[in-house]
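Here is an idea for our session: we take a single protein and study its fold together. Once you have written the record down, we can walk along the chain together.
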Amino acid sequence: MRMAHGVPNVVVFLALIVVQIGFGGYGVIVKKFAANNKANPLVFCLIRDGICWPVLLLCAVVAERKLHIPRLKEVPLFFVLGLFGMFGNQFFYIMGVYYAGADISSIFQPAIPVWTSLLAIITRIEKPPTLRKCYGWAKVIGIVLAVGGAITMLTSKLTGTDAGSSSSKSNSSHQTSFRTILGILFLFANTVCMAIFILVQKRFIFDRPAFRWSHFPVSVTAWCYFFGAVCMAVASFYYVVKCPHVGACESDPWHIPAQEAIPLVYAIFIASALCYMLITWGNMHLSPSLVTAFWPFQVPVAVVMSYFTLGERLVYLDYVGGALIIIGLMLVVYSNWYSDKSLKESKDALVFGRTEEERQSLLSPRSQHNINGDNDVFDSPKKAKSFASGHVQQH
């Protein structure tokens, strides 16, 4: 499989699978250890981000052999990334978990690749899938199957849960409905923020090879967390003053129950430091739509972990949904592999028979953008070979 920045794509795919295992386990950990002991969600996120930043900064110094500090003109970019990727995304997710529950929170996560693909096409960060070719349809169908499989699995869980507990909820249906709707709005904002974070990061950092941050994904993640923690601190103080008892189980809104210790440690080191570091690293190597195409995989992870740790049983819809997710991811990976192969053949044909100086000029970032972008010199290997044969005849 093609090498991206010297790294085989299969290694990047495995890293993104690890990300979804980490995310899938987070909801299960919260449900097992802190389902009835809810800390103030903003205070929880503030502690999470505040501790995660120095952890990531230390990892950046060790892995990248240097401490990189943003210049003044680079601060707005990192502030936007921290605002959407760390503050907005994480806060809205934890609020969604508290108000709508871990199951409904998980059912929204497969929407991330959908928003990412749509926004990438609208902002012209990515080209629309070539529907005249099989690999273009494979990408579309793969995303649809993965999202559909995740929804199938989670719908079966929610249906079973509601059926078994309908009598206990009858006295508080209005309150539950309001909390669920509020949680759904938070989760919609969570998924959109994640899509914006990945697209902005790709467009303004990793799509600019000359930019000094484009080769330091760990440092990028660390400084995103710093500005996200700053936003979280401001929001936390405002939140505690205005609504001190919302989302907290104690009179002291700054109190973190002892039962939240394990979810907090997991959130800092796994769901934050490890997962976001791998997301940024994967975004450096792959397209945003392919990075987020792995998101539905966290649903079967959560279902399987719930089976082993919470004793929840699996039904046939879980197996059907899991199969759809796996088939969908395979189609997306196939589409990416075939499109990369076609592009490589196009570039090889473009430089065939030219001098070394002409090759370097044609393979410059600007020329490659013309090949990949709207001017699309070759949209198939057949056209590339035709161009190559014509060029040889001219010489």
